[in-house]
Amino acid sequence: MSSRRGAVLVAGATGHLGAEVVQELHQRGYTVHALVRSTANASRLQGLCKLVQGDVSKPASLQGVCAGITVVISCLGVTTKKGSGSPVSEANKVLKKGTIALFNEAKRAGSVQQFVLIGSVLSRQLRYQWAGYQAREAAVDHITKNCQDGSIAWTVVDPSAFFKDMVNIMRLVRKGGFTGLGKLLDHKANPIHVQDLAARVADTIMRKEDQNSRIPVGGPETFKYREIIQLAADTWGIKEVKIRTFPLWSARLLEWFFQGFAFISVRLQRFAYFLRFLVILATNDSVGQPTGKRKLDVFFTELATQARRAENARATSEMQPMLSHQD
Ligand SMILES: NC(=O)c1ccc[n+]([C@@H]2O[C@H](COP(=O)([O-])OP(=O)(O)OC[C@H]3O[C@@H](n4cnc5c(N)ncnc54)[C@H](OP(=O)(O)O)[C@@H]3O)[C@@H](O)[C@H]2O)c1
């Protein structure tokens, strides 16, 4: 689709995936509009797109954002900031009501032909097991129901896991070993590089076979989590990685405990929400259709190189006063 045939609006454009989707669409020659809550954190998008301000939790702020838009791509996610509410209410505000408000605005505009939404590979199957999935699936239900008249096509891209989520494994391994739920170790995932995912999201635009369907997407290699831990250890040159595991029941008990005291603070609610997510990861494989070419070992090596460079630069700057004193 050339820019003559309308523009693409990307929601969540300041996020990890959204910014990459904007970049990809720009490279492919699309006219891109980026929906941002604040232009302050959109410096990465400068020169790639037109910034449009709007907050999906305030439907009035969305009026007119889809004017002249042909495709809307929602990469919205819950970003918890200081002062934000409980994770469950944030998920309902952004992933459910916010996505629905954006879709309704897209439909009202009259020019939008396709609405693309980022889901998650486990979301449909496990919708009642985690509030984040439940909120997202409620939005998917609304969208698919309201597309039945054929006025707009819908596409849900369901990623497995992102490479960026494997960074924590790198950190833990370097700090002295992996600590986590034992059940996780033999579950599988095919994490995907954000650029490969952004390319797949861009491919869905006006592609007949992607319309009115869900597309489970993962990276080209499937690993057991214990293999990802070993890959991280190899990257750091660690021969024997220490693995300390906890049984599933301990996470469930902790979640139950934090849930019980969730009324005390949002922090406890976040912890319970996070524990539930860990239990889901540890009891399910997260695997989508193999897509893209970027490999996890290359990503790990790049990260390790960057980390070492930053450490060297820090060490040099710390030594500078001593060196100049010797002069
Ligand atoms: N991480 C994974 O492995 C994984 C796997 C499967 C699916 N997913 C899903 O993929 C999606 C994208 O993930 P991500 O990591 O790119 O998310 P992210 O980095 O957290 O970005 C979320 C984006 O949503 C925007 N946003 C939040 N609330 C908003 C509101 N009220 N109005 C307008 N914009 C709002 C944020 O804007 P601000 O900059 O203003 O906060 C940000 O641009 C998410 O839905 C996530 O659940 C992730």
From TrEMBL:
It comes from the Eukaryota. It holds the Pfam family NAD_binding_10. Residues 12-167 form the NAD(P)-binding domain. Gene3D superfamilies: NAD(P)-binding Rossmann-like Domain. This is NAD(P)-binding domain-containing protein. It comes from Apatococcus lobatus.
